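Hey, can you fold this one?
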Amino acid sequence: MKKKVLAAALAGVMVLAMAAGCAKPKVTLGQYKGLELTDISAKEVEDEMAAILESHATLVEVDRAAVEGDTVNINYVGTLDGVAFEGGTDDSEEGTDLELGSNSFIDGFEEGLIGATAGQKLDLNLTFPDPYENNPDLAGKAVVFSVTVNKVQETQIPELTDAFVVENYPQYGSTTEELTKALHDEMQKDTFYNQITKLIMESSTVEKMPADEIAEEALLMVRQYTSYAEYYASMYGIDTEMALYYFMGFESTEALQQYAQEYATSVIKNEIILKEIAEIEGIKLTKDVYTEKAAEYAKSYGYETVEEFEEVYEKEEIETVILMNLVMDFIIDEATIIAPTEE
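Sure. Predicted structure:
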């Protein structure tokens, strides 16, 4: 549970700081006072808390037959006409953890392990799908997987208790009530910030956008995502374009470049608009406010001191983000909050 608003804002701060020395863009503000903002529901908070607890789930070995949703640790050998085929064997000491129902293996493999127990050995007579892009030579072929089940494990999700809060989220308090309130406030602020951004971006215009800075920010994003894709490509033995698609959802490098350009433009435009509002409304960042807010952000990110936080994020970046958030809070104070619908 992190300050998502801060993290998102930090992404574009340095570019905006560089843009400050260029010709000032012309801003025409739309409505930013008296906006209608829709509040979050109690169910949204409950669902997010459930997701948090699930993220702390652990695998516990059990002495029973495997059911769907369990994770079995297995070794296996796949053979075609009695001969082991490439990529179809795991005889390692650590074995493979396979969640039954995850559809990670070909049809019939996981279903064949339901009801299996630790120590059991069984043969699965299966047929590879046709086509089979991972290995076209196996497409449509009948094979046998000889599987050894090493252990059966079930997923255990922890309960929301004071002890859980103290162990995992001490920065938010020591009780379930404190964690729930912190989660509610964080989600609410994140939701309001997103709504505000959408509304003021739609109703405001910025002329003479800093094209060079947009291009630089977009290039940084492309390089970062490409670096991630190259890492996954090397790990899974695929090319970079395929990694971009499977792991990040971009159909091509060109699609990533277009997204990065649009994102950079949006981030910089939003921050220019917020700075304009700050200037009009006389919203300034004082030393005392910086000290207070920086300490809050440092704590929520798990840093002991503001100084440690400033070693990761430059002070100028943090100052700009705090100012942007002060403007957002001003807009919220001026807004009308609408209760969420049943849905």
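Strands lie at 26-28, 36-38, 58-62, 71-80, 83-90, 96-99, 121-127, 142-156, 205-207, 336-338. Let me know if you want another pass with a different chain boundary.
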